[in-house]
Amino acid sequence: MSDNNFEKLLEESVKLHGHLCPGQVLGVRLAMLGLNLLNITDPKGKDRKKFMVLVEIDRCATDALQSVTGCSLGKRSLRWIDNGIMAATFVNLEDMTGYRILAKEEARDLSKKYCPEIQDKYKRQLEAYKVMSDDELFQVKRVKVSIPECDMPGRPLKRVQCSQCGEWVQDCREVVKDDKIFCRPCAYGRYYEEL
Ligand SMILES: [Zn+2]
Ligand SMILES: [Zn+2]
């Protein structure tokens, strides 16, 4: 993909995310690399059902991944694995193999080499991440991924009712205890209390 393309993708990503930040630059670069590795040329068109992205962090770069790939939570083509690690795996849905791309911690310091004249750390990283090589920014591993049937894109496989609160639970998230079906909140506790 060309520089021209990068600038365009970054612009779109900033629009979705709301501001320009190092995470947008890093996320756009990561997404472009992931799509390249999977040979995806039209992620939002003819190739959109061929792949999935599993992202391991919910930070700025996550929005860039969504913007560039067109994958989203609502389409289930973007899944959030809550690891707190700046990494994402691009999966070919035909054979469930793919590439896990990790943003290298060293890239933060290496930004000094590229833009030493910029004092502000974030501005320096932002500019440096545009010009650093993929090798300097990322570590790539070839991986095989297993995703439960219930987590795949497509129609919900299952819908059941909680025996305690009566709410409906989709996608195999129910809990069975003593032969009874419960939703997770009834089984494990809620994140809210009623006022
Ligand atoms: Zn941001
Ligand atoms: Zn319940």
Question: Could you describe the 3D structure shown?
Answer:
The chain is an alpha+beta fold and 195 residues long. The protein is 36% helix and 21% strand. It contains seven helices and nine strands, in the order ααβαβββαααβββββα. The chain has helices at 3-17, 22-37, 60-69, 106-114, 121-131, 134-137, 184-188; strands at residues 51-55, 78-80, 87-92, 97-103, 138-144, 159-161, 168-170, 175-177, 180-182. The protein has a five-stranded mixed sheet with strand order 2-1-3-4-5. It has a two-stranded antiparallel ribbon with strand order 6-7. Helix 1 packs across helix 2 and helix 2 (22-37) crosses helix 3 (60-69). The chain binds zinc ion (2 copies).
Oligomer: single chain
Helix/strand order: HHEHEEEHHHEEEEEH
**β-strand number:** 9
Number of helices: 7
Which structural class matches the secondary elements? alpha+beta
Overall pLDDT metric: 95
Q: Name the bound molecules.
A: zinc ion
Low-confidence stretches: none
Could you tell me the radius of gyration in angstroms? 20 Å
SSE layout:
Blueprint: H1 3-17, H2 22-37, E1 51-55, H3 60-69, E2 78-80, E3 87-92, E4 97-103, H4 106-114, H5 121-131, H6 134-137, E5 138-144, E6 159-161, E7 168-170, E8 175-177, E9 180-182, H7 184-188
Parallel strand pairs: 1-2
Antiparallel strand pairs: 1-3, 3-4, 4-5, 6-7, 8-9
This protein binds zinc ion (2 copies).
